[in-house]
Specification:
6-stranded mixed sheet; mainly beta; 5-stranded antiparallel sheet; Immunoglobulin-like; elongated; about 160 residues; about 55% strand
């Protein structure tokens, strides 16, 4: 389980497609480079370790808000390197939209819903393993804004099934 805590806050400006309330562009670039961690939120990832090409799989992201106030799930971001061998086909609940962000090599799935105080919410991504290989990369959960994220790692090995003789 990944757990990070920090003071909540928002930034303001539009920079590289991200919205930052109340901050200068220079400070926004610094936040993008360094990132911030959300306050009183924990994330548990469940990613299949070994699958075969063509297998359908589920990637589960459980987000727990231990604060006494609601927090917003802004997005869940998958790195391009993980998605080279794993094709996401949908999520439950469904994302509002998805977009590729070439500047940082991710695909971002926007959600925009709140998790109430002391509540948890699971988001399950459906996927298909594409071809044999070892695929890994960042899986980030952004809370309250685009730069307040919990950074995780996903890895799935796609192996050809053993040949029967």
């Amino acid at each position: 389980m990944l757990t990070h805590k920090s003071a909540p806050g928002e930034l303001r400006n539009i920079l590289f497609g991200f919205h930052f309330p109340r901050v200068s562009p220079l400070l926004a670039v610094l936040f993008l480079a360094l990132g911030c961690s959300p306050s009183e939120v924990s994330v548990s990832l469940s990613v299949p370790a070994v699958v075969s090409p063509g297998d359908e799989l589920e990637i589960s992201v459980e987000i727990t808000n231990s604060a006494d106030y609601p927090q917003k799930i802004v997005s869940i971001d998958f790195s391009d390197s993980y998605l080279e061998g794993i094709m996401l086909t949908g999520s439950d609940p469904a994302s509002l939209e998805s977009s590729h962000v070439p500047l940082i090599n991710i695909v971002s799935y926007d959600f925009g819903f709140e998790i109430g105080p002391n509540k948890s919410k699971a988001i399950v991504f459906k996927a298909i393993a594409l071809e044999a290989g070892d695929y890994s990369g960042d899986l980030d959960v952004c809370i309250n804004n685009d730069v307040s994220c919990i950074y995780g790692h996903a890895r799935s090995v796609v192996k050809e099934p053993a040949q029967l003789y």
